[in-house]
Design goal:
Elements: H1 10-25, E1 28-32, E2 38-43, E3 58-62, E4 66-70, H2 71-80, E5 83-85
Antiparallel strand pairs: 1-2, 1-5, 2-3, 3-4
Helix pairs in contact: 1-2
């Protein structure tokens, strides 16, 4: 997700909207770790900073452990297929 110049592509915007919606409804997600393992959890509402700048937001996923990622990282994971929203085993 482009954060340095403040410009989002349409694809990034649609992915961001899907992530925010998934968080609002608490859907199951799955993601691939750096070691190639598949982890699952439930995405939680996107946490906005006090500035309200969505580019600085964080995404929390509850699984065996609580995972917290910058929104830009989650957008990249969804776009490259290493995270699936609304995962059904």
């Amino acid at each position: 997700m482009t954060t340095t110049d403040g410009v989002l592509t349409v694809h990034e915007l649609l992915t961001l909207a899907a992530i925010v919606n998934a968080g609002r409804t608490g859907v199951p997600v799955a993601w691939e770790t750096a070691s190639g393992d598949i982890k699952t959890g439930v995405i939680r509402p996107v946490q906005l900073p006090s500035s309200g700048d969505v580019r600085q937001a964080e995404v929390r996923v509850s699984g065996t452990f609580e995972h917290l990622w910058p929104i830009a990282e989650v957008v990249a994971m969804v776009q490259d297929g290493t995270m699936a929203l609304d995962y059904v085993p």
